[in-house]
Amino acid sequence: MASLKRVIAGADSRGVRSEDGFTLVELVVVLVVMAILLSVAVGFQIGARERASDATARANIRAAVPAIEAYRGDSGTYVGMTVASLESQYSPGVQGIVVVSAGASAYCVRATEGGRTWFKLGPDGPITTTACS
After folding, report:
1. Global model pTM greater than 0.85
2. CB distance 68 to 50 below 8 Å
3. For residue 103, what are the contacts with CB-CB under 8 A and spacing of at least 6?
4. Is the separation of the CB atoms in 102 and 120 below 8 Å?
5. Does residue 15 sit within a domain?
6. 85 assigned to some structural domain
7. Which sign does the torsion angle of CA 101, 56, 126, 70 carry?
8. Total domains present in the chain
9. Which of 56, 68, 76 shows the shortest CA–CA distance to 100?
């Protein structure tokens, strides 16, 4: 029973108290685990930033579509449509887009955010990273 009390109290079988602390191997293991967790966190951060930039560019295009359609409703065509005309007449909040082309029955706008460019060939096309042709 006395030996059990010594083990519980941190003493070895001779009754000498052992040194408290961590071994070098334990410290290296902790550092390796922390490095792995940090690399995973950085990867998620980079991916989140790219997804946020993509969402902003697509949102800018979606926000401009009602103003673009209002322009066509008033003029009967997309010809002559510019970002300045959309902002002044239909939507003061239109930002981040560029009118690439505007014809009688179709248009192409683009938004660039975070190094990636998104396009919409309208009126019915999807928002994609493929340039309008």
Report:
1. no
2. no
3. 77, 78, 79
4. no
5. no
6. yes
7. negative
8. 1
9. 68
Contact 61, 127 (CB under 8 A): yes
CA distance 42 to 130: 29
**Residue 42 in domain:** yes
What Cα–Cα distance (Å) separates residue 78 from each residue in 87, 100, 105, 109? 15, 12, 7, 11
> For the chain (length 133 residues), average pLDDT per consecutive 10?
52 63 92 94 86 92 91 92 87 82 92 92 92 83
For residue 10, tell me if it sits in a domain.
no
Looking at residue 21, its pLDDT comes to: 85
What does the alpha-carbon distance between residue 78 and residue 106 come to, in Å, rounded to a whole number? Answer: 7
Domain ranges, residue 102: 22-128
| DSSP character string of 61-74 | HHHHHHHHHHHHHH
**In the chain, what is the greatest distance between 2 CA atoms, to the nearest angstrom?**
99
User: What is the number of other CB atoms lying within 10 angstroms of the CB of residue 120?
Assistant: 24
